[in-house]
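Course assignment 3, question 2. Fill in each field.
Student: A.L.
Task: Predict the tertiary structure for the chain below.
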Amino acid sequence: MEQLVEQGRFRLDLYYRLNVIPIQIPALRERHDCIVPLIRHYIDEFSHQTGVHKRLTRAALDALTVYPYPGNVRELMNLCERMVVMSETELIDLSDLPAQVTSFSTKTSSHSTTSPRPVTATDPRSSRAQPAGISLSEIQQSD
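Answer field:
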């Protein structure tokens, strides 16, 4: 931003207003451990907003975790909203993901889409995962 101020392309007064406490937050692609919790949060949030219950298959979650998110958290949030709104079934699978996400998937087609394994968020009122889901420790072990 300092460069933009020097070039006269950004107002100096606005720069000082925004620069009260400078915070450096790494891009989402540099915070790999944040991706799954953020996906779970936004899938749950948009499911709640739309009044539908959506879950991710393991294959979809795998593809979402290897995607580099050039649009950072905003892109992840938009993808989650899109998947919740656009998927026709309760399970969000690879076919529900945009092509730019699935093209980054390094997984082989060993995941069967005929019997997907759903991934659900942990119920906030309980410390146990919902029975149909997969635990965070299982996800971390597979990485």
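Instructor remarks: The mean pLDDT is 80. The domain at 26-142 is CATH 1.10.8.60 (Helicase, Ruva Protein; domain 3).
Grade: pending
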